[in-house]
Amino acid sequence: MWWLLRKVLFLLDAEDAHALAKWGIRGMARVLPLRPLLEGNPVGLAAGFDKNAELLEALPVFGFSSVEIGTVTPLPQGGNDRPRLFRNPHDSTLFNRMGFNNLGAGIISERVRRARKRIPTNFKIGVNLGKNKSTPDELAHQDYAKAATPFADTADYFVINVSSPNTPGLRTLQSPEHLNPIVKEVKEVIRKSGRQIPLYVKLAPELSGDSLKRLIRALETAGISGLVLTNTLGGDYIYRQKSLPGGWSGQILTSIARDRLIEVRSITALPIISVGGIMTVEDASERMKLGATSIQLYTGWIYQGPFFARKIYRALCG
Ligand SMILES: Cc1cc2nc3c(=O)[nH]c(=O)nc-3n(C[C@H](O)[C@H](O)[C@H](O)COP(=O)(O)O)c2cc1C
């Protein structure tokens, strides 16, 4: 059934198909039974799928125990011009150059507060934080704090995203000099909230070796709670003879994200959310065996169909 539906969806422009799929997900969630979320279910939905917190009530029905909403920026922004999402079904990849299109922290946080009453209490909502495109890098730390503030009473965890390839200059923030002030400002928001909100940092798959080790040591010292590994792999997509910069996800990331997990697990005991190229139940189970604390899906959910998360958590949790 899914293969047929997928064929139809894949005839559409990728972003239109995504909008239609979200509508379908919400509709299906209304008729499917909500099974209690198993304790210890490690399967979450990765950032960027539900940027504006439209699917919070539906996701537990599909077997997800958490979602990372966003990337959320302080002010709403439209993102890059379309087309900005492409799929390559022959190698199960996606290419995106979305550019943090989102409704802004104010509206999205209000949605989370409203949805809280209707979702299971053990469903976790993480908030992936970013900066507005127009904010200069020197003021980035202020943007991360501004994006976090409206969520301080409701987020289950925060993620500092400095690894999207689609906001010019963002990845240069992946250094101790730039990340320290950002972590400090967001930790101050958390302190003022009086709640214990874990703070994660999401890194690019390209970071490795000495620079990765140095960065992780600095982040440990700064007192982060864990890491999200990895974001998309930077690259180009040829569209109408023009080369568009952006990020690859899906199968192309499977071995890279796995290698990064192995590398980082050998450096630190911090919790790691492993994401990137989890396309089969076996990939998911391997990540857990390699020391991931939990996993997230994005491209795999699109290629494997709506029940992929359920399939994984059944295999992992019995
Ligand atoms: C269309 C699209 C939009 C994304 N948007 C974001 C985003 O806003 N913030 C972020 O941290 N990651 C974003 N990601 C990256 C995913 O969260 C994930 O790290 C990446 O896709 C690798 O996982 P996958 O191979 O399972 O898709 C996006 C990915 C895709 C495909």
CATH homologous superfamily caption: Aldolase class I
The biggest beta sheet reads: 8 strands, parallel, barrel
Helical content band: 25-40%
Separate helix tally: 10
Write the element-wise H/E pattern from the N-terminal end onward.
Answer: HHEEEEHEHEHEHEEEHEHEHH
Just name the CATH architecture. Answer: Alpha-Beta Barrel
Radius of gyration: 18 Å
Strand content: 15-25%
Give the beta-strand count: 12
Topology-level CATH name: TIM Barrel
Low-confidence stretches: none
The hetero compounds bound to this protein are:
flavin mononucleotide
CATH top level class name? Alpha Beta
Shape: globular
Chain-averaged pLDDT = 96
How many individual domains? 1
N/C terminus separation: 25 Å
Structural class: alpha/beta
Q: Within the largest sheet, what's the order of strands?
A: 1-2-5-6-7-8-11-12
Please provide a written account of the structure:
Helix 4 (140-148) packs parallel to helix 5 and helix 5 packs parallel to helix 6. The chain has helices spanning 2-9, 14-31, 105-116, 140-148, 176-193, 209-222, 254-265, 281-289, 299-304, 308-317, and strands at residues 43-45, 66-72, 85-88, 93-96, 124-129, 157-161, 199-203, 226-229, 233-239, 242-250, 272-275, 294-297. It contains ten helices and twelve strands. It has a single domain, classed as Aldolase class I (TIM Barrel, Alpha-Beta Barrel), CATH 3.20.20. With 318 residues, it is of the alpha/beta class. Strand 6 (157-161), helix 5 (176-193) and strand 7 form a beta-alpha-beta unit. The strands form two sheets. The chain has an eight-stranded parallel β-barrel with strand order 1-2-5-6-7-8-11-12, surrounded by six helices. It has a four-stranded antiparallel β-sheet with strand order 3-4-10-9, with no helix packed on it. The radius of gyration is 18 Å and the shape is globular. The two termini are 25 Å apart. Bound molecules: flavin mononucleotide. Flavin mononucleotide is lined by residues 46-48, 51, 70-71, 85, 94, 96, 98, 100, 128, 161, 164, 202, 231-232, 249-250, 253, 275-278, 297-300. Residues 46-48, 51, 70-71, 85, 94, 96, 98, 100, 128, 161, 164, 202, 231-232, 249-250, 253, 275-278, 297-300 line the site of flavin mononucleotide.
